[in-house]
Amino acid sequence: MSTFPCGCVLPCGPFCDAHRLEFFGGEPVTDVDRFLMLLRDNPTLLPAAPDDTTGAMMERRRQDEVHACLRCGERARTATIAGTSLGSRWLDLCMACYSWMIRGATPAPLWPGR
User: How far apart are CA 49 and CA 90, in angstroms?
Assistant: First the structure.
């Protein structure tokens, strides 16, 4: 029996908007949350990263290698590691998109499955 107006039952795969609003206590889900949920549901969008990535490896990727920002396509100036169901993945973003992501994300403890 579903407890959500959308028909979803926990845990569901892709969360519909009605389910997200219920889960987040009626607060609207931000574009950043939608972006991060897309990446969580589709980790193959991100290139694989070594599980033992060091700070030096991240710095080399950020400074010496050229990667496109996953969100806008500009040159990425940040490189972070995302833990996904497929293991570690690179999340390459330009500074504007990195700032957008950091400022707009709902705090991690509120995320489904955490």
Answer: 6
Decide if 70 contacts 114 (C-beta within 8 A). Answer: no
Query: Do residues 26 and 5 touch, judged by C-beta distance below 8 A?
Result: no
pLDDT tens per residue across span 17-69 = 555 555 555 554 678 877 887 888 888 999 999 988 888 999 999 999 999 99
Give Cβ neighbours of residue 86 (< 8 Å, ≥ 6 apart).
43, 44, 48
Q: What is the pLDDT of residues 6-20, one digit of tens each?
A: 555 444 444 555 555
User: Quick one: tokens of 26?
Assistant: 């009626």
Domain range annotation of the chain: 17-105
Count other C-beta atoms under 10 Å from residue 85's C-beta: 9
Cβ atoms of 89 and 81 closer than 8 Å: yes
Q: What is the pTM of this model?
A: 0.66
Cα–Cα distance measured from residue 80 to residue 93, given in angstroms and rounded to the nearest whole number: 8
